[in-house]
């Protein structure tokens, strides 16, 4: 796994570039309903319902091997289309551009400012060092269309040089960051903030449903929630730092037994751009021991495939509510453990986790900028 440390983005870069067109799929709830099965739920967020709102959008985004969730946006006039990683762990929007001729840039669709009548150059350059490489670019302004929501004068980073192979095999042409503007490189205004500033949304929220087992049907909603993507109630917890989508964790349980590892409080960053569940490095050995995982010659933690159903359930307690992860959530089809260490410093002495896609496939996640809180509900 290549980790882009500067903006806390972790993605698995697989070989080959495959462009998968966005397709509309029936929701799981609709498919079950056709078979006579109705999933009950109580909905505490009807005021956010997206079906009747013009200031909202449902985007069906791609799932590549349960490691990368990305979809199409367009930039410019006439529109040029790009696949971008939708990332709650960073704040900037950038895409490959015609200014860049490195191998990594040439492997992707590139934005050509000369072909857009609405583009204007800002004149400010940037450099982003990543753990797996680096990116040089310049900022400009143009019209951006995200799921039918049109944002005018959006600041965009355009790559000018990608000097190594870090992005060569990425499934996407850029990254659309959805975290808070305080961590935006170059002071660029994030897409979500421009949606808010331009009054484009009925509610200043967005939400993710991440599909499982490499299946398509993932949904990103702006301006509301998709009530067909979750069941039961939404549990809310406050953001503890308006930088990343960071929240407090009160406890960590193994098979219902409290470990005490978060007795003084833990913190977690909720990050769609990280494929794994990331644990504080000092706790990883204890977690693997409780799972019975062994490290192989490639450094991966593996379990006995015949014993997966006997592995423990891992649970996080957040604002008094328990969020369990069964073995099917954290063990992949190759019997390796989807939990990795983080060596990031703890926040105020509190251990830091990253709730990546392993967690977010189990729980529909709602990001509320008005109230600076995160909501979780059981994903269908």
Task: Describe it.
- The chain is mainly beta.
- The protein has 6 helices and 26 strands.
- 46% of the residues are buried.
Q: Runs with pLDDT <50, length 5+? A: 1-33, 35-54
How does the helix and strand content classify structurally? mainly beta
What oligomeric state best describes the polypeptide chains here? single chain
CATH architecture group name of the largest domain: Beta Barrel
Widest sheet: strand ordering: 4-5-10-6-9-8
The count of helical stretches stands at 6
Give the name of the CATH superfamily of the largest domain. Answer: Acid Proteases
Biggest beta sheet attributes: 6 strands, mixed, barrel
CATH classification, class level of the largest domain: Mainly Beta
CATH topology of the largest domain, by name, is Cathepsin D, subunit A, domain 1
Strand segment tally: 26
User: Taking Cα atoms only, what radius of gyration do you get, to the nearest Å?
Assistant: 20 Å
- How many discrete domains? 2
Helix content: under 10%
Strand content: 35-45%
Shape: globular
Q: Mean pLDDT across all residues, rounded? A: 86
- From the N-terminal CA to the C-terminal CA, the straight-line distance is 28 Å
Characteristic key phrases:
380 residues, Cathepsin D, subunit A, domain 1, 2 domains, 4-stranded antiparallel beta sheet, globular, disordered N terminus
Outline of this structure?
With 380 residues, the chain is mainly β.
Q: How are the SSEs placed, and which strands pair?
A:
Layout: E1 2-4, E2 9-11, H1 28-34, E3 57-64, E4 68-75, E5 80-87, E6 93-95, H2 103-106, E7 120-130, E8 133-146, E9 149-161, E10 174-177, H3 191-197, E11 205-209, E12 218-222, E13 230-242, E14 245-249, E15 251-254, E16 257-258, E17 266-270, E18 277-280, H4 281-291, E19 294-295, E20 301-302, E21 314-318, E22 321-325, H5 327-330, E23 339-342, E24 352-355, H6 357-360, E25 363-368, E26 373-379
Parallel strand pairs: 5-10, 6-9, 17-24, 18-23
Antiparallel strand pairs: 1-2, 3-4, 3-12, 4-5, 4-8, 6-10, 7-8, 8-9, 11-12, 11-25, 13-14, 13-26, 14-17, 15-16, 15-21, 18-24, 19-20, 21-22, 25-26
């Amino acid at each position: 796994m290549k980790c882009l440390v500067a903006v806390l983005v972790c993605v698995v870069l697989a070989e080959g570039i495959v462009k998968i067109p966005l397709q509309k799929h029936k929701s799981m709830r609709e498919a079950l309903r056709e078979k006579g099965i109705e999933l009950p739920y109580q909905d505490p967020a009807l005021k956010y319902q997206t079906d009747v709102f013009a200031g909202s959008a449902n985007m069906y985004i791609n799932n590549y091997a349960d490691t990368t969730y990305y979809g199409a946006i367009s930039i410019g006039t006439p529109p040029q289309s790009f696949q971008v990683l939708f990332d709650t762990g960073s704040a900037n929007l950038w895409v490959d551009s015609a200014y860049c001729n490195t191998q990594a840039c040439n492997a992707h669709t590139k934005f050509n400012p000369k072909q857009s009548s609405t583009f204007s150059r800002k004149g400010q350059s940037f450099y982003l060092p990543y753990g797996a490489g680096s990116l040089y670019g310049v900022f400009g302004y143009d019209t951006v269309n995200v799921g039918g929501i049109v944002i005018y004068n959006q600041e965009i980073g355009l790559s000018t040089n990608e000097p190594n192979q870090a992005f060569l095999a990425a499934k996407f042409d850029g990254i659309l960051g959805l975290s808070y503007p305080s961590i935006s490189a170059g002071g660029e205004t994030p897409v979500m903030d421009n949606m808010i500033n331009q009054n484009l949304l009925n509610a200043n929220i967005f939400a993710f449903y991440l599909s499982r087992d490499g299946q398509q049907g993932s949904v990103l909603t702006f301006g509301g929630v998709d009530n067909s993507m979750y069941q039961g109630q939404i549990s809310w917890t406050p953001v503890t730092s308006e930088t990343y989508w960071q929240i407090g964790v009160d406890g960590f349980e193994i098979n219902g037994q409290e470990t005490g590892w978060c007795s003084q409080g833990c913190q977690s960053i909720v990050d769609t751009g990280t494929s794994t569940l990331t644990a504080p490095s000092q706790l990883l050995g204890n977690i693997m021991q409780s799972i019975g995982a062994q490290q192989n010659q490639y450094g991966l933690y593996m379990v006995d495939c015949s014993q997966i159903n006997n592995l423990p359930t891992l649970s996080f307690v957040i604002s008094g509510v328990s969020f369990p992860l069964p073995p099917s959530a954290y063990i992949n089809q190759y019997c390796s453990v989807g939990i990795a260490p983080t060596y990031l410093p703890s926040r105020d002495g509190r251990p830091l986790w990253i709730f990546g896609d392993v967690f977010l496939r189990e729980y529909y996640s709602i990001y509320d900028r008005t109230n600076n809180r995160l909501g979780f509900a059981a994903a269908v």
